[in-house]
Specification:
Layout: H1 11-20, E1 24-26, H2 33-37, E2 51-54, H3 58-71, E3 75-78, E4 94-97, E5 104-107, E6 112-116, H4 121-129, E7 133-134, H5 145-150, H6 158-161, E8 168-174, E9 180-184, H7 189-195, E10 204-211, E11 213-214, E12 218-227, H8 231-241, E13 249-257, E14 272-280, H9 287-290, H10 292-295, E15 302-303, E16 306-309, H11 310-315, E17 326-334, H12 339-350, E18 357-363, H13 367-370, E19 385-393, H14 399-412, H15 432-436, H16 438-451
Parallel strand pairs: 2-4, 3-4
Antiparallel strand pairs: 1-2, 5-6, 6-10, 7-11, 8-9, 8-10, 12-14, 12-15, 12-16, 13-14, 13-18, 17-19, 18-19
Helix pairs in contact: 8-12, 12-14
């Protein structure tokens, strides 16, 4: 593939955009291009956009969208840049980079946070925790608020507070035709419905408004590591415990390899383990009682589940997922976690080709399930569990084996799957129709026809508009 700039993008043409935006415009020959064009997922880091526009506000975004449309450039939108499927960058197109727009303003009396479209969850947690408040955020703190929220937002407090998208009260959106529109429960209600799970299909969100909840600074949270030999017992206990667990607690079982942390005995570093990770949004004093059944599984390698700062659980996984790691995810919603599936997952776990091949079984239910199906664009609310096959590697040659392993893991769960999936956990493009199901997908297409009939915003789990 050629990576030369199209003739229409002569310096005079680019200069028109430079005069129209307040932020920085970076072309391939400019200093800093390599850094400006890089993304978190190293598997997609070789792409060379024609321009990166670092926007400082909605006016810059409007100008960049107009420029892209007039020159025929494909648009990639970057918030935190964590898109597993590589949607945060593009070859020969324009990257509209919102990272300078990362301000967070908290109104503690209204229990609302106004968040810039380029903020990451660390930005939000830093400001909200100063007031003893929080909203459901990412599992890694460098994850962008925008992509995470627009895809739904599965996080550590979702069973108590709902998904990130359930806490989205309002948003400012630059549409494909360059308008800045406000979506809330009182204005452009249909657009707000689509933003709550429908991804970046309908425009570029320049500002979010979230509901906040009292939480922290201390919570009862953390992991318990067991030997892989205990994985079957852990998954079965987890399956039986999860439906009766109070909404305060949100948990995941992770079949993985022990990370090289000082708190884990050295002889276990790199060995296959089964981890239970939980966060309680309730009182710290009651936390231990919520997870006593899990502690009964057996003798742990390391039990780190206890009182800790909320911001610590929010950053716990950060060191394992640094910028530049190659990553691929594949997921499915589970209708059940039966013995057959438990056995299959344990077998797949032991066959993992690398230390960062992980099988995450997320506990759903609680506040997520209490919202009516179809009330938002989030694909499915009734499933008890979500399975995510997560892979990370550093040697580019290892990519094929890791992707094949993740796909095999999801294939092994086919009989227990609902047939749908959480779009933020999908490393392959073009998965929207099967992920959302026909009813939601049909409604999303109608919204796409209204707000983006020519599919200007197509680098996402794309909702293709119907031809006029």
């Amino acid at each position: 593939m050629s990576h030369t700039i199209a003739p229409v993008l002569g310096e005079a043409t680019i200069q028109e955009l430079r005069t129209a935006v307040k932020g920085q415009i970076i072309a391939p020959d400019d200093d800093g291009y390599s850094e400006a064009s890089s993304v978190w997922n190293g598997a997609h880091d070789g792409r060379r956009p024609a321009l990166v526009v670092r926007c400082t506000g909605a006016a810059d975004v409007i100008a960049a969208v107009g420029f892209a449309r007039s020159t025929g450039l494909t648009i990639a939108v970057r918030g935190g840049g964590h898109s597993v499927a590589g949607f945060s960058t593009t070859d020969d197109g324009i990257v509209i980079d919102l990272s300078p727009m990362n301000g967070v303003r908290v109104d503690p009396s209204a229990m609302r946070a106004t968040v810039g479209g380029g903020a990451v969850w660390a930005d939000v947690d830093h400001e909200t925790q100063a007031h003893g408040l929080a909203t459901t955020g990412g599992l890694v703190s460098s994850t962008g608020v925008a992509g995470f929220t627009l895809g739904g937002g599965i996080g550590w407090t979702m069973r108590k507070f709902g998904l990130a998208s359930d806490n989205l009260a309002a948003a400012d959106v630059v549409t494909a035709d360059g308008r800045l529109v406000h979506a809330s429960e009182f204005e452009n209600v249909d657009l707000l419905w689509g933003l709550r799970g429908g991804g970046g299909n309908f425009g570029i969100v320049t500002q979010f408004e979230f509901d906040l909840h009292p939480l922290g600074p201390m919570v009862y949270a953390g992991p318990i590591f067991f030997p892989a030999s205990a994985a079957r017992d852990l998954l079965r206990t987890f399956r039986n415990w999860a439906p009766q667990a109070p909404d305060d607690v949100t948990a995941v079982v992770n079949l993985t390899s022990a990370p090289p942390l000082p708190v884990i005995p050295q002889e276990w570093h790199g060995e296959k383990v089964a981890a239970f990770v939980a966060t309680s949004a309730g009182s710290v004093e009651e936390g231990a009682g919520l997870v006593s059944a899990i502690r009964g599984v057996g003798e742990p390698i390391a039990d780190l589940l206890g009182p800790m700062p909320y911001q610590m659980i929010q950053t716990l996984l950060d060191p394992l997922w640094p910028k530049g790691i190659h990553a691929y995810f594949k997921a499915t919603n589970l209708a059940r976690l039966d013995d057959d599936l438990v056995d299959r997952l344990c077998e797949v776990h032991l066959a993992a080709p690398g230390p960062q091949c992980e099988l995450h079984v997320h506990q759903m239910g609680g506040a997520v399930a209490r919202i009516d199906e179809g009330a938002t664009a989030f694909a499915e609310r009734s499933m008890p569990f979500v399975l995510n096959a997560v892979t990370g590697w550093h040697d580019p040659e290892a990519g094929s084996a890791h992707r094949e392993w993740a796909r095999a893991a999801i294939a092994a769960a086919s009989r227990a799957s609902t047939g749908r999936a959480y779009v933020n956990f999908l490393g392959d493009p073009d998965a929207a129709r099967t992920s959302y199901g026909e009813d939601t997908y049909t409604r999303l297409v109608a919204l796409k026809n209204q707000y983006d009939p020519t599919n200007v915003f197509r680098l996402n789990q794309n909702i293709a508009p119907e031809p006029a």
